[in-house]
């Protein structure tokens, strides 16, 4: 297997490897896992693997989970279908920088996404390195956000297009999660800037050190949150991947955010994502 780094920020392309072989080959899997922790997102082309092999490979990293709104392949639980077809047209949730499922108490460790069909041009996906985004923050901002906590909500995102009763039922099932604004990577110990489109507000901002008058609270908190969320938009932290059928991306969901670019005319783009269960951020 060869590993070619794609940008200074993150991302590497693997060649000379079949992911299905890593299901049973301990050494190969260990090499891929180490490369993932180093490069944060890995790309592999020409993976003519079956859905069973896709799921089996992703399961090497941990258990898989379905998504409460996006449906999964009925024969392969844990394999979420991200299909844009004339029957299932545009979905606005794609155009936002995010880490998957941070509205969960224990958001995903990572994911393995395979392209089934894509437009000849367009429909790329971008990733941003949120370890680098934290590292590059000005020291005064690092001081300001140390110890801050924030809420992440499925209700305010996926739920917002639902009728009110369904939205409330979704919130009952998945109450907002609270996570540190700066989390620690569970394996590498690196610090990560951990706010994204699912983040609604800080929960412990309103203290005398930050808020002189009540009037300070809202502009202060929301401007800071907006600034932090916007760090993922910085090109120097990013990599962009052009899909072809049978291309695969494997990413570390703690350390990165991603953005599926919806620049293609309606509608054919079919992706399948195996999401790997993660742990509670600290
Ligand atoms: C995702 O947001 O997990 C899917 C990304 C993509 O469809 O490119």
Automatic annotation (TrEMBL):
Which keywords describe this protein according to UniProt?
Dioxygenase, Iron, Metal-binding, Oxidoreductase
What Gene3D superfamilies would the database entry show?
Clavaminate synthase-like
Q: Which GO terms describe its molecular function?
A: metal ion binding; taurine dioxygenase activity
Highest taxon of source: Bacteria
Is Oxidoreductase there in the keyword field?
A: yes
- Please name the InterPro entries in this protein's record: AtsK-like, TauD-like_sf, TauD/TfdA-like
Q: Name one GO biological process term.
A: sulfur compound metabolic process
Q: Which GO terms describe its cellular component?
A: cytoplasm
Ranges for domain TauD/TfdA-like: 3-274
Checking Pfam families in the record gives: TauD
Please indicate if the UniProt record lists S-adenosyl-L-methionine as a keyword.
Answer: no
Name the family: Belongs to the TfdA dioxygenase family.
Protein name in the entry: Taurine dioxygenase
Protein's organism: Caballeronia arvi
Lineage runs:
Bacteria, Pseudomonadati, Pseudomonadota, Betaproteobacteria, Burkholderiales
């Amino acid at each position: 297997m060869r590993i070619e780094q794609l940008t200074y920020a993150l991302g590497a392309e693997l060649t000379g490897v079949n992911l299905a072989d890593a299901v049973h080959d301990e050494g190969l899997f260990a090499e891929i896992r180490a490369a993932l922790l180093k490069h944060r997102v890995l790309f592999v082309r020409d993976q003519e693997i079956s859905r069973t092999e896709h799921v089996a490979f992703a399961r090497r990293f941990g258990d898989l989970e379905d998504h409460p709104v996006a449906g999964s392949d009925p024969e392969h639980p844990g394999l979420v279908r991200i299909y844009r077809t004339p029957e299932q047209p545009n979905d606005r949730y794609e155009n936002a920088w995010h880490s998957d499922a941070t509205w969960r108490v224990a958001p995903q460790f990572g994911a393995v996404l395979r392209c089934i069909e894509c437009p000849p041009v367009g429909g790329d996906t971008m990733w941003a390195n949120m370890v680098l985004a934290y590292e590059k923050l000005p020291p005064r901002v690092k001081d300001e956000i140390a110890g801050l906590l924030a809420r992440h909500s499925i209700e305010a995102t996926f739920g917002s297009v639902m009728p009110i009763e369904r939205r409330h039922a979704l919130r009952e099932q998945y109450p907002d999660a609270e996570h540190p604004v700066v989390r620690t990577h569970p394996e590498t110990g690196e610090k990560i800037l951990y706010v994204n489109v699912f983040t609604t507000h800080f929960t412990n901002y309103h203290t005398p050190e930050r808020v002189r008058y009540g009037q300070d609270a809202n502009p202060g908190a929301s401007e800071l949150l907006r600034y932090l969320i916007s760090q993922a938009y910085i090109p120097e932290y990013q990599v962009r991947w052009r899909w072809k059928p049978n291309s695969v991306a494997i990413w570390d969901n703690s350390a990165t955010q991603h953005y599926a670019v919806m620049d293609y005319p309606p509608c054919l783009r079919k992706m399948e994502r195996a999401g790997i269960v993660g742990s509670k951020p600290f």
